[in-house]
Design brief:
The protein contains 18 helices and 15 strands. The strands form two sheets. Strands 2-1-11-10-9-3-8-7-4-6-5 form an eleven-stranded mixed beta sheet. Strands 12, 13, 14 and 15 form a four-stranded antiparallel beta sheet that branches. It has about 475 residues and is α/β, with parallel strands linked by helices. The radius of gyration is 32 Å and the shape is elongated. The chain has helices at about 20-25, 40-50, 65-70, 85-95, 110-125, 140-145, 155-170, 190-195, 205-215, 275-290, 305-310, 325-345, 350-365, 375-385, 395-400, 410-420, 430-435, 440-455; strands spanning about 5-10, 15-20, 30, 55-60, 75, 100-105, 135-140, 175-180, 200, 235-240, 245-250, 460, 465-470, 475-480, 480-484. Helix 12 crosses helix 14. InterPro entries: AAA+_ATPase, ATPase_Atu1862_pred, HerA-like, HerA_central, P-loop_NTPase. This is AAA+ ATPase domain-containing protein. It holds the Pfam family DUF87.
Length: about 475
């Protein structure tokens, strides 16, 4: 088996070879403006070298996930995992020598940078026994090693740039060969670009990028003008793994493609103007014709004094209040609690006010006295806030048992989480947890979650997409992921 692969042909039709073993030692930089064929070149390189060496692809746009169909790469959608899980996967990738594509397309730019930093740093920090050779391909490298922070935080840039610098400067001894591709050399950190010894330069138009390319290729600025005239799919190649003098290469064909394929000209559908207007505007006009329903006002709790006056003014000839046993009164408790929760606004009244409202409503439904005391009401009201109004329902027993280590004021938010986990619902957001906790402070909600996690009653995880899910170990269940 040869260690050389063909990436295309030169002007005379002769194959241009890349020595993969030499590439592992000397690294590669690919540059080309959008539309120059840069991604096609990377795909050709990956396809040809797939049988020879382990490959790890950092893919910000999800372009290379189709390699899995033909070559068995494992696709990791970074948006589905948190930082700890990404790190564990990177450790196993080095241990088992798996070829993978880390797809970052579901993440925002800053989350992409942090995820890539975690992933690359873990690859770099692998135990010495796992220092197997691997091509690490990073597309759109200017995103992960930018000259300036731009719209992202300094922390994200620092972490990502440090990981990319380690890959290109110190990765060789650990078996990691960086192959980085960028649209703009001027936007790529110089200490990262300068570590590559092999170059494939595609079409670029800006003088500052051509000047950087000429410096890297060892060409005079006047000679670098030819870079502007390169056709799509043609690159100037130079480096110990390719050739000792610059040579123009036409990149060869590939077996796989992006999920969307190549965009080609497509005429618009033939339709009469009137028909197209009807298709575009019919539903819009229909929606505009329907007036928006007025917002439903939040019912305010009835003041206790007004209720008491209403009771005092009631006709004296009404039937005597019946006596209920606890079995019958439990249905009244459930009904009253549901009414109270339905009438609540955004801010919760104090517990004593709620209990007074509860006792009045119970009397209005025929109970002579409150069927439960204040501590029992606190528990039942917490259950009602979480949608667990019926305490006799055996489904809630395990959730209540799991809440035993928590203070009473944390029962409502915990039960809200537990109910979501039991029913497979999305994780309650901070606003819902804050309301159940009787606060409007996001900081208190974060401290609440941290405290419950330290007590071992929940396990919270947040993926790189910012979606949170919370597991309840004692139930063996977890909520669905949702925006926190």
């Amino acid at each position: 088996m040869t260690a050389s692969i063909s990436i295309g042909t030169d002007g005379a039709g002769n194959p241009v070879l890349v020595d993969v073993e030499e590439l592992l030692a000397t690294r590669l930089l690919v540059q080309g403006n959008s539309g120059s064929g840069k991604s096609h070149l990377l795909r050709r390189l990956l396809e040809e070298s797939a049988p020879l060496v382990q490959q790890v692809v950092i893919d910000p746009e999800g372009d290379f996930v189709t390699l899995a169909d033909e070559y068995g790469h494992v696709v990791i959608d970074a948006g589905d995992y948190n930082e700890r899980e990404i790190g564990k996967m990177a450790t196993r990738i080095r241990e088992h020598r798996a070829s993978v594509v880390l797809s970052l397309e579901s993440l925002e730019l800053e989350a992409q940078m942090k995820c890539a930093a975690t992933f690359l740093s873990t690859l770099f920090d692998a135990p010495r026994d796992h220092w197997y050779p691997a091509l690490v391909v990073v597309d759109e490298a200017q995103m992960f090693a930018p000259v300036a922070a731009g719209d992202v935080s300094d922390e994200a840039r620092r972490l990502s740039l440090a990981a990319m610098t380690n890959l290109m400067c110190r990765g060789r001894k650990r078996g990691l060969a960086g192959v980085i591709a960028t649209q703009r050399l001027a936007k790529l950190a110089k200490n990262v670009a300068a570590e590559a010894s092999n170059f494939l330069m595609g079409r670029t138009f800006l003088d500052i990028d051509m000047a950087r390319a000429a410096d890297l290729l060892g060409m005079e600025r006047r000679q670098a003008e030819q870079i502007r005239d390169l056709e799509r799919g043609r690159f100037l190649a130079l480096g110990p793994a390719i050739c000792r003098r610059p040579v123009a290469v036409r990149i060869g064909s590939v077996k796989t493609s992006t999920r969307g394929g190549t965009h080609k000209l497509m005429p618009p559908p033939a339709a009469a103007t009137g028909d197209m207007q009807e298709l575009l505007f019919a539903q819009v006009e229909e929606d505009m014709a329907l007036p928006a329903p007025p917002p439903r006002p939040e019912p305010a709790p009835l003041p206790a004094e007004e209720v008491m006056r209403a009771l005092a003014a009631a006709p004296s000839a009404k039937p005597a209040e019946p006596e209920f046993d606890m079995g019958e009164s439990d249905g009244v408790i459930v009904a009253v609690l549901e009414e109270i929760v339905a009438d609540l606004g955004e801010a919760l009244p104090g517990l004593s006010t709620l209990y007074q409202d509860f006792t009045v409503r119970c009397r209005m439904k025929g109970l002579k006295r409150a069927p439960i005391d204040l501590p029992a009401f606190r528990k039942r009201f917490a259950m009602a806030l979480a949608g667990m109004t019926d305490a006799a329902d055996p489904r809630w027993e395990n959730a209540l048992r799991a809440a035993a280590p928590l203070p009473e004021d944390m029962l409502a938010p915990f039960l809200l989480i537990a109910r979501a986990a039991m029913q497979g619902l999305p994780c309650p957001d901070d606003a819902k947890l804050a309301r159940a906790y009787g606060t409007s402070s996001p900081g208190r909600v974060r401290r609440l979650i941290d405290y419950m996690e330290r007590q071992g009653v929940i396990v919270a995880r947040t993926d790189f997409g910012g979606r949170r899910s919370i597991g309840v170990p004692q139930l063996g269940l977890s909520t669905a992921a949702a925006e926190g």
